[in-house]
Amino acid sequence: MSDRENGDAAMDSRLRGNDGGHPTEARKHGEQRREFGLLAAIVVASPVLVGVGYSVLGALGVAGPGADGLGMRHVQSVVADGATWRGLLWSLWIASASTAIAAVLAMAVATVFRGGRVSNRLVRFMALGPLPVPHVVAALCGLLIFSQSGLLSRIAFATGLHSSPADMPALTNDRYGIGLILALVWKEFAFLALVAFSVIARRGAALEETARSLGAGALHSFRVAVLPALWRGLLPSIVAVFTFVAGNYEAAVLLAPSSPLALPLLTMERFTDSALGVRGEAFVLVLLAMVVSIAGVAAHEWAAGRAEAGD
Amino acid sequence: MTPARRAARTGLVSVIAVAALLPLAFLIALSVSAEWFYPSLLPRRWTVENWNVLRGESAAIGRALSMSVALALGTGGITAIAGLVAGREIARLDGWRRRIAVALAFLPVAVPPLALSIGLQYSVLRAGFGGRLGGVLFAHIVPALGYTTIFFIGIFAVFDWKVEDEARSLGAGPRDVLIRVTIPLLRRPLVEAFALGFLVSWAQVPLTLLIGQGLVSTLPLELMSYVSAGQDHLAATAGLILTIPPMVLLVMAGLAVRRLRVVVP
Amino acid sequence: MDGTNREPRLSAKRDFRVSADLTFESCPHSQLMTYASVTSHLCLSKLRFFQTAMAAVLACGCDTEAPAPQISASLPWDSIVARARGTTVQWRMWRGDPSVNAYVDGWVAPRLLRDYRITLRTIDGQGPAIVNQLVVEREARARGSADLIWINGETFNNLQKEKLLYGPWANRLPSAASVDSLSSIVMRDFEQPTNGFESPWGRVQFTLIYDSVRTPDPPRTVAELSRWIRAHPGRFTHDQQFTGTTFLKSVFYAENGGSRSFEGGFSEARYDSGSRRLWAWLDAVRPFFWRKGETYPAGVADLHRLFANGEVDFTMSYNENEVITKVRQGVLPATSRALVLRDGSIANTHFVGIPYNSPNPAGAMVIANFLLSADAQLEKLRPEVWADGTVLDVSKLPREAAARFRAIDTGPRSIPRDTLRRYEAPEVAAEYTERIARDWKVRIRADTK
Q1: Beta-carbon neighbour count of residue C181 at 10 Å?
Q2: Phi then psi for C316, rounded to 5 degrees?
Q3: Domain map of chain C by residue range?
Q4: Exposed end of chain C (fewer CB within 10 Å): N or C?
Q5: Nearest CB partner across the interface for A298, out of B103, B123, B228
Q6: pLDDT per residue over B175-230, tens digit each?
Q7: Residues B169-181: pLDDT tens digits?
Q8: B18 in reach of chain A (CB within 8 A)
């Protein structure tokens, strides 16, 4: 290996905190405290596990409003229903699109406007604007702005482009969920930006300095030094956003179409069905949503594990 | 900076500015108007009756507001500290243990709130905390703790452990290291985690509804009521009320952090 | 034990004798249990009661279930009122309409406080949510969170099936004497006799709402409507919830010769043949619906929004006077008018009920009685308040009250009372509603991809 590559490798390992700061060092000091991590995680997760247990009982017909005797019929009818899978796919589409766009935008803004300059700080502050707004309010605004009789359409009407609501393309309650994606991107971008700003603030400057000091060019140093750290710091939040969006009810009820019906809407429909027995199906759908989320988390862990091994 | 890059930068800034400000201006306009139908660009009537209605239901709204504040402050405070401790412990793990721990920490976040509420409702009611502030606080902490733990896992992923090691090599015990070294270093993320926990609790709907049995009324619940009833102007008004405290909190957090930066080298 | 108290009375004056092994699982359940295990050492048993009660309070917050304190059938009304005095009643009701809230919070609650010293607290909750809540409360043996609930139709059906209602009680109310008991619409809830398990509160009728400027000559029958829809593509739709289902039921009746063909309980055969005509009607007009019938507004509130903003030319309501309140609230434009379909306008009543685990049934009964009083019904009927129909038979009231009812002028937007009566159609068995709603959802979702 050339000196340059050696230097890169060394820089990489230092940036990852491998150099003397790796947790393996700390472990030597705290061998007996290793279990605390698992314990902490279990404490954080235990209420959810209880909830999962109850949902399993409900899905089997043993507990909850739909309880009419132990059996698999709820599971069978949900699995056999095409609407279940169409709804699941649609919700995954919405989650993927919104999360991807929001993440890219958040990383872009965090890097373009990093640093202590007043103008940059102002932009970062503005970017967090959507953060305090509740999702349901964001969805309502999206509806009132993007619908065929919404603000955009009225502007088009005022400028003579349109003559009736039907002239405006359908962005709300539409098959592709464009209005819903826009509203969710608006909200999730702010959240991801918050995390991204924090990550960059903590490590960004130092990383870049180190890279630059090793002789890397500006763009290269950014790509090699800051971007991976940013991505790694942001990844957990990205997974969180993905699963949150996939399961969000309040925004979907305003902006999603009635067919294919998003999974949270389908779940709520089953849960409030007039026939009590059908409510057991809602528990099955709840478990389905949980399984999908857990699969997403597992995929993230596997990818992160591979990334770490490959470095 | 090349002209192209400057133009791109300006474009990005304007998009951010419009995206941040337009919806808020829109909400404000909705809250002080009535009868705003297509194709009018401006409402037919400007009026403060929406705020009066909310003030007329003032006992309910006032109670809901203070309940929301109490819950959110409690959740934010508890989960910020707990999230730091948990996130740090988990980040120190290695290998398969770490992966399992991270996955577990993700569960409260991954599980849709509706699912969580349905699942928790029975146990909390059974324990006798249904319909009470304590029960709802617990219910809010569950997802919020997940969020702050993950947030801190991300922070500790790029944390320089050398500082802790040095402190320990100077003879500090593990608890001292945590309190005297790590936490002061992480003042800013702590404040941000508090904001995060606060926000998760502040906007929470299904958990409050199902665990509070309707007896614990928070502002988001009133808001959902208006939205599902098609009362857009009232919903915008309630939405603005709902938006203001977190906004204040964020501004204060931003200012506090700047002041702290001066103190902490 | 006083039925209206919530906390266990630890007064030394009470002659409580409690089973000595009071555990976490079994807080005192009923008077029967408390008196069942008698100990001869009064002091010792009292001490143990204190200890175990304290332990129970600390361990479970003493929020475990006590079934509704039974009010014996022979208890005179005055004693019930006496029990209710000074108590708090929690009423779970839909809180989405500011006019209803203003009536309940601003008119009913102060008068209850003034006349009976009853404090009224309202909690948000509606239909299926109420059923779910009660089921989980029973399962978790939690304390009842509501004394009174606002229900009708399928909710009542479900609650009855699950035995989640307290009662019978409604016939004991003095005001029940003035109720229009000859009307099957008032005395039956979706063809099921109420049997005193719920007390009527108001009655409403289904109407279409149109804009008199946009649609000066609206269709008045289902057949005319289908022609209109085809002539104006993309300008009509209905919602996915209760109002939309009521619309579908109206078409169901119209295409099958009226509601009479479906009276007398649910019949699978009649439903099959009847629904086939309904789907045929729908399939013919669906391509001309808003968005080509591929998507539908979630609830009637969303439909109102579409109508007000000119995306469609019709909205609807199961309350014939909702157009009045919605115009006043600025949700609908001032030129909105209501019309009844000549094929039949479905009428139904909404009720109040008492859950099986209500901690304060006496207070709930007093409130239900008050809601049926002539004053309360009159105030509710006023267009500036709620414009909700009365369930009273005006001829049974004293002359002066009856005159005030007749004098109410609901304004130019409302439909004359005799028109409403002429075209009114009753609800039939709840299963028809359930099936129509479910099959419709399956059909619209099956068509897409």
Answers
A1: 15
A2: -150, 170
A3: 1-64, 77-200+348-414, 207-339+425-446
A4: C
A5: B103
A6: 888 888 888 888 888 988 898 899 889 988 888 988 888 888 888 888 888 888 88
A7: 888 888 888 888 8
A8: no
